Amino acid sequence: MAPDTKLGHFPGYQNVSLKHKDMQRIINSDEPSWKQALSNVKGGYVVTDTNNGSLYIGSASGSVDGIWQRWSGYADIGNLTGGNKEFAEIMKNKREDYLINNFQYSILEIFDTKTKIETIIERENYWKNVLDTKKHGMNHN
């Protein structure tokens, strides 16, 4: 199936803001420039529910394939939640394609792959506090 938009080359970390369908297409087609860029960094990201403005702050702190690996979980057509309990609850209470039609993925900050997990988690918690996503968003931890 041909993509409706040409996603093109990786635009730089500060310019990443992808609708779920586009993120899924990039991951599933193993788009080389995106895969290389996202695999080479750990980082913090925000998922926005464009239907209601609710935010979820997440992080990719694993030592293999960085943000690419984490977002691959969300792109998996068999389980679009990436193992996220809140996303699973949303899917259960709304249409099955809700995440695909309403979620947008953006990078907040990036780190070298050698950055310690604790540092990434500290920064994730920083963003959760700044954006108040535990009280007014989709973070529950």
TrEMBL record:
SUPFAM superfamilies, alphabetized: GIY-YIG endonuclease
* Matches recorded under Pfam families: GIY-YIG (PF01541)
Q: Which InterPro entries match?
A: GIY-YIG_endonuc, GIY-YIG_endonuc_sf
Which part of the chain is the GIY-YIG domain?
Answer: 41-141
Q: What is this protein called?
A: GIY-YIG domain-containing protein
Q: Which organism is it from?
A: Eubacterium limosum
